[in-house]
Structures are given as structure tokens and as C-alpha cells.
Amino acid sequence: DSSDDIEDVSLFDADADVSRRSKKSKIRHPVASFFHLFFRVSAIVVYLLCELLTSSFIACMVTIILLLSCDFWAVKNVTGRLMVGLRWWNQVDDDGRSQWIFEARKVSAQGSKTSSEAESRIFWLGLITCPMIWVIFAFSALFSFKVKWLAVVVMGVVLQGANLYGYIRCKVGSRKNLTSMATNYLGKQFLRQVRFPGFWKPS
Length: 203
Hints:
Elements: H1 21-24, H2 30-53, H3 57-83, E1 86-92, E2 98-104, H4 117-143, H5 147-172, H6 175-195
Antiparallel strand pairs: 1-2
Membrane topology: Multi-pass membrane protein
Keywords: Membrane, Transmembrane, Transmembrane helix
Family: Belongs to the TVP23 family.
């Protein structure tokens, strides 16, 4: 049900052509690069400092959720398409069935890509790092019994994790590709254990 006509885009989009590397390192969309990090970093900063800035939990919660929602919309609809040429969305067909579409920008006739290496690094670094931080916040809130903050951190994990999952699907292709990648990895680990059984035994 997903689009499998995927361009081979590396996570950091390194260009093999050395002569174009200086050109590829330029940030072509500075506004998109700024807002790709602004909303998600602002949500984390507000979460860390809100108890020092105000005693109103409702104000902090609303501010963080608004920032997370703006980040979700901006990353899903704008920055992913401009910075790395990836996009994903959901559509309902004529039969009423919901379909998830994952696409990557096709290489042009000259074989060039419009995304730069610097923008790709910014995109993937922000996309991967921030959900991991929210997962840490979730465990911290759980183990410190800050139950009222669980809804906020779970919202951060869900919204930013959804974008991360969607763009990874754009990168690797269909669900079948994800399954085959996991199967290949587990197969290699099994073969390594069979060939070198002593490697896995404690010393």
C-alpha cells in the first residue's frame, strides 16, 4: 500500500562526488532548518525550566503541547520535504480504506539532488536525538512518580516518534524491507554465534 519508488538517501546524505561537496555543504533552506530544531528544542527547554519559570502546571502543559504540535506539523509537512526530499502522509481511497504513503524525491535527469549534506545532518540529528530525550523524560517522570507530567512526556514521545518512524519508512521503503532488514541482522548474529560460539560465552 506504500510507495516503494524510493531514492537511496543515506541518513546523512553524503555526496559521492567530491567536486560538489563544498556546494552540498551549504544550507539552502535556512528558515526550514531553523524551525526544524526550534519547536522541538523549545519544547524540551520549556519542560526542563517550566517549574522555575511558573507554578502553573496548566500553562506549562499547554505551552509544551502547542510546541510539540507545531513541531509535528512543520517536520511532517515542510522540513522533511525541503531538507531531505522525503514525505509521508495518510490518505483514504474510494473504498474507505486508509493508506499510508511514504515517498522520497527522485533523482533528477542530471543525477543531482537538491538537498545538501549540512541540511541532511541537521534534519536527521534533530529527528533522532529529540525523541530519545523524551523517552528519557518519560522514564524519569515514571520513576520519580511525577504522574502529572506523564501525559506531557508521552505526547512528546508519540508525536516526535511518529515523525521518526515515518521518515525511516521513507528511507528504507516498505514494511517488507523493514522486516527483511531485521531478519538479515538476526541471521548474521546467529551465524556469527554458530561460527564463533566461544565469543558469546562469559570469560
